[in-house]
């Protein structure tokens, strides 16, 4: 029972980080203008604001059938792929290491490797690249601390 609750919690953390990747990683790439931490989110084509529900990773893509609700332009599949790669990869890493703090550490290293590869592939953003990269990495610290804490709790409750 407890184990199931922890696994769901870990899954939601990975789900959230998958969504985060589209700002925290994609905003470091060529053509991005918004600061990585900005909560603003809008269609690159028509500028329509995207409300929180429609920022839900994967789900919003499916609900909107991959199109902007305002102008109907196709949303690049890359964002969806990135969400899935981060989410699934981090969760599998956690499972492989039985939700230990080591597993949490490796899954966050995996996130950083994905970030590095995406920036290499798409090119650096033109404005404030270094500063934004540092901010984006630092923004992971609270998530890492929280996930490591959940892993410690899991160890105490489920592994004795
Ligand atoms: Zn649009």
Keywords:
single chain; mainly alpha; 160 residues; binds zinc ion; globular; 0% strand; 6 helices
Question: Could you explain the architecture of this structure?
Answer:
The protein is an all-alpha fold and 160 residues long. The protein has one domain. It is 62% helix and 0% strand. It has six helices and no strands. It has helices at 2-24, 59-63, 77-96, 101-122, 129-138, 140-158. The radius of gyration is 17 Å and the shape is globular. The chain starts with a helix and ends with a helix. The mean pLDDT is 94. Zinc ion binds at residues 43, 45-46, 48, 68, 70-71, 73.
Q: What is the tally of helical segments?
A: 6
**What proportion strand?**
under 5%
Give the termini separation. Answer: 15 Å
SSE ordering: HHHHHH
Write the layout of secondary structure elements.
Elements: H1 2-24, H2 59-63, H3 77-96, H4 101-122, H5 129-138, H6 140-158
Bound molecules: zinc ion.
Describe what is shown at a glance:
This protein has helices at 2-24, 59-63, 77-96, 101-122, 129-138, 140-158. It is mostly helical and 160 residues long.
